[in-house]
Amino acid sequence: MPDTAHQPPYYSNAPVALVIGCGDMGVGCARVLGRRRPLLLADIDSQRLEASVASLADEGYLVSGTECDITDPASVRELAGQLSGVGGVEVLAHVAAVAGAAIGWRRVMEVDLLGAHRVADAVSPAMQPGGVAVLISSTGSYQCPVDARIESLLDAPLQPGFIDKLAEAFGREPDFLEAYFMAKQGINRLARRLALEWGPRQIRAVSVSPGLINTSMGRTSGAKTPLFDGQGNKHLVTRDVKAAREVPLGRQGSVLEIVDVVDFLASGAASFITGIDIPVDGGSTARLRSLGLISR
Ligand SMILES: NC(=O)c1ccc[n+]([C@@H]2O[C@H](COP(=O)([O-])OP(=O)(O)OC[C@H]3O[C@@H](n4cnc5c(N)ncnc54)[C@H](O)[C@@H]3O)[C@@H](O)[C@H]2O)c1
């Protein structure tokens, strides 16, 4: 596992902000979280990881990186093993996910849901009192079916046969978007579970649900994205058209508008906020709710 270290020795025992996933949003989170604590970045993509670490180090951040595939239990254990050496974790920003219709629904579940559970369980012993986990979800989480059997499966995705049981509870194999919605609802529920488990240790857990955000993932996965017309019909349109029609603020959000919320949640100003999801969506869930298209 190649490591890229740029961390001065006097920081070697300070608790870190651990950022899982170095896409646009992960690096944005690193930029705000790294202003107050050393950074440890993890990603499956070694080139992207090295480029992110190098560019943050050039900007003056105390940063190191470690390659990690969150779908691989051994790789996640190896990541967790490094955390005692860095004095534990003050902030876990779990950002990694995959998206795109070309990615099979099973892979979406493996990365977006099982990966997050694996990371949270492995990092848990290293979380420091006063710390927080911020799990990046999606407003798609609100479009997951309200169904007790599905929800109880989403709460325990590491059980044997989970993927097949989920397809059975859903009634068929979900498509990519349906799987993404369920995986992200699972993320909101994971934040709630962690808040209960970690509360007595004075550790918080929150999920953040971005709406339409102008990132490279969004641009790639959402070249065509569904637009709900209010009559129960769905049309495929570009993200800008969707934003103009579906987002009450009339536009896509920016990465900065997400990472500012992450920064707030990691700060003392949010010290009594735990166990909830915070949509950051320009009002799009409010609109879907008003149209009766979501009931969460
Ligand atoms: N962009 C949007 O409009 C939007 C909207 C809602 C939610 N989100 C969420 O925001 C988050 C980040 O979005 P982004 O635009 O930065 O995405 P991105 O694709 O740019 O970054 C995701 C990162 O996760 C990494 N990753 C993928 N599989 C991995 C694995 N198995 N192990 C470790 N790392 C892995 C990728 O290499 C990549 O660096 C995601 O959770 C996404 O679901 C984005």
Topology overview:
Layout: E1 3-5, E2 16-20, H1 24-33, E3 39-43, H2 46-58, E4 63-67, H3 73-81, E5 89-94, H4 105-123, E6 127-136, H5 148-154, H6 162-170, H7 176-198, E7 204-210, H8 216-221, E8 225-228, E9 234-237, H9 239-246, H10 255-266, E10 277-280, H11 284-290
Parallel strand pairs: 2-3, 2-5, 3-4, 5-6, 6-7, 7-10
Antiparallel strand pairs: 1-4, 8-9
Helix pairs in contact: 1-10, 3-4, 4-7, 5-6
The structure holds nicotinamide-adenine-dinucleotide.
Residues 21-26, 43-45, 48, 68-71, 95-99, 111, 115, 136, 138, 210, 212-213, 215-218 line the site of nicotinamide-adenine-dinucleotide (NAD).
Mind explaining what this structure looks like?
By secondary structure, this protein is of the alpha/beta class. The chain has a single domain, classed as 3-Layer(aba) Sandwich (Rossmann fold), CATH 3.40.50. It is 42% helix and 18% strand. It is built from 11 helices and 10 strands. An 8-stranded mixed beta sheet has the order 1-4-3-2-5-6-7-10, with helices on both faces. The chain has a two-stranded antiparallel sheet with strand order 8-9. Helix 3 (73-81) runs parallel beside helix 4 (105-123) and helix 5 (148-154) packs antiparallel against helix 6. The structure holds nicotinamide-adenine-dinucleotide. Nicotinamide-adenine-dinucleotide (NAD) is lined by residues 21-26, 43-45, 48, 68-71, 95-99, 111, 115, 136, 138, 210, 212-213, 215-218.
